Hints:
Elements: E1 3-7, H1 16-31, E2 35-39, H2 45-50, H3 53-61, H4 66-74, H5 84-87, E3 98-101, H6 110-123, H7 129-145, E4 154-158, H8 165-173, E5 176-181, H9 185-204, E6 214-222, H10 226-242, E7 253-254, H11 257-262, H12 269-272, H13 277-303
Helix pairs in contact: 1-13, 6-7, 7-8
Amino acid sequence: MGVIISTVNMKGGVGKTTLTVNLATVLAKYHNKRVLVLDLDSQISATLSLVSPHDFAKFRKKRRTLSYLLDHAITPNPWKKLEIQDLICPCVCNVDGLELLPGDIELYDEYLVSEMLHKKAVEETGKEFEKVWDNFERILIKNIIQPIVNDYDFIIMDCAPGYNLLTRSGIAASNYYLLPARPEPLSLVGIQLLERRIANLKEHHQDTEPLNINLLGIGFILSAGGLMGRYYKQVMKRIRDDFYPEQLFNQSIPMDVNVAKAVDLFTPVVLAMPNSSGSKAFVKLTEEFLTKIAVNKEQLVSAH
Ligand SMILES: Nc1ncnc2c1ncn2[C@@H]1O[C@H](COP(=O)(O)OP(=O)(O)OP(=O)(O)O)[C@@H](O)[C@H]1O
Ligand SMILES: [Mg+2]
């Protein structure tokens, strides 16, 4: 069964998308894994990190994006022609095993979702709106990926900043979450807030179907040198005191202009500039990722 992972941080611009696409690429290219990237963010950064805007426009014109599946989940109709398998782009960036379910600039209409759930709550007498909403949130992404979960080793979901419906639904469907962050005091507050929200989400669903999500690790993007670099090192020291070692990735990602430039080529840096420092760090971080997954699996087995 595929391992489902969401890359989350309520804070914007901390490297969620960059981590998602580079990790997915290294897993497919160097570890022979079959990996699906799911773009849950209407900024479509993950999509445009892997395919050109021209290709994206073609998918969108044919309605071959995540938005098609969301529309059918919100207002099911019998004329549904496409299944998730039809929307997935195989062999992305010419890497065997690297696949993408493109996101969309319009993913769902909040008003339509609320209206549909409200109608459901009225029809299903005795059910509170909140319960109907919680149930929808729990199964939305889970049901969308259900037909293909076993086709992949990893499904990695790139979440939007904030904590919207799709992020919560993605988290609810995941086995693990990855948390990229910058070593800054406010970033640490953000991590703790997110952890609290995920704990609340788990508690909320405890009575229906307990969520099986755990933190896989916090990965830091570091400034290479100068005053900023020195400051980040100081904060990292505090972080090591505040978190358990297993909550952190040892390998950090350096600030590297090649990582930013690669976005212009619609190709992750690990393919575009494999010898860059950013690239090498992503390769090492992926090894640590695989070790963490293996350790977690072992713990699960021994717990049973
Ligand atoms: N290691 C790095 N070195 C240099 N630039 C980087 C690095 N990691 C990310 N960036 C750049 O920083 C910007 C933000 O990164 P990214 O889009 O991955 O963050 P995000 O958390 O996904 O943002 P959002 O919250 O908007 O989705 C991008 O322009 C990206 O190219
Ligand atoms: Mg992003």
